[in-house]
From TrEMBL:
The keyword Magnesium applies. One of its GO terms (biological process) is division septum assembly. Belongs to the TRAFAC class TrmE-Era-EngA-EngB-Septin-like GTPase superfamily. EngB GTPase family. Transmembrane segments: none annotated. This is Probable GTP-binding protein EngB. It holds the Pfam family MMR_HSR1. Its cofactor is Mg(2+). InterPro entries: G_ENGB_dom, GTP-bd, GTP-bd_ribosome_bio_YsxC, P-loop_NTPase. Gene3D superfamilies: P-loop containing nucleotide triphosphate hydrolases. It comes from Isachenkonia alkalipeptolytica. The lineage of its organism: Bacteria, Bacillati, Bacillota, Clostridia, Eubacteriales. One of its GO terms (cellular component) is cytosol. Keywords: Cell cycle, Cell division, GTP-binding, Magnesium, Metal-binding, Nucleotide-binding, Septation. CDD domains: YihA_EngB.
Amino acid sequence: MKIKTAEIVMSAVKPEQYPEGDLPEIAMVGRSNVGKSSAINTLLGRKKLARVSSSPGKTRTINFYLINNAFYLVDLPGYGYAKTSKPERAAWGKMIETYLSTRENLQEVIQLVDIRHNPSQDDQLMYNWLKHFGYGSLVLATKLDKIKRSQYQKHIKNIREILEMPPESKVMALSALKKTGVEDAWEKMGSLVER
Ligand code: GDP
């Protein structure tokens, strides 16, 4: 897919603020610092559309990026930041649950995990949640440049096993640093929003 236009149209905290209309959406979610902002910027070929956070855990809004006037890429706030207070965590949970359970435009939610590490307990909880809502057919492994090529299959296998991914689900891998994996990701993601 060629990205012709990409613009942020809304930072929402409640459903009334979600964009109107029936354009399809693909959302992305992951532990804070997993590389989600970098991945979004890389996928969209933009340097600073999504803010690469100097203070992790600060993005507490659902950000809607309108792509090619055809669909939205939706940036969900990250989880698992150690300094987040209990009330903040509860607010995050409510905001995400509301979005996942009510948003009719939503086609798929892509979970991001760091390719170097076994998915954390929070990652597992999140992925189970996604499966519960009927999502999770795609997982995006970030920071691909941080592992040796020879270790790739082993890491992907670990991610699949620990998240208990269904056989038909797919793992993609991306390096925001080297800009690798972009075409493959759009090949898989594009089919979700084509009409
Ligand atoms: P977010 O909190 O999930 O949005 O994560 P960020 O995009 O802000 O990235 C967190 C940190 O990981 C930053 O220091 C990034 O420079 C770094 N990072 C993100 N993606 C990559 C990648 O593909 N390769 C490498 N080497 N570092 C990355």
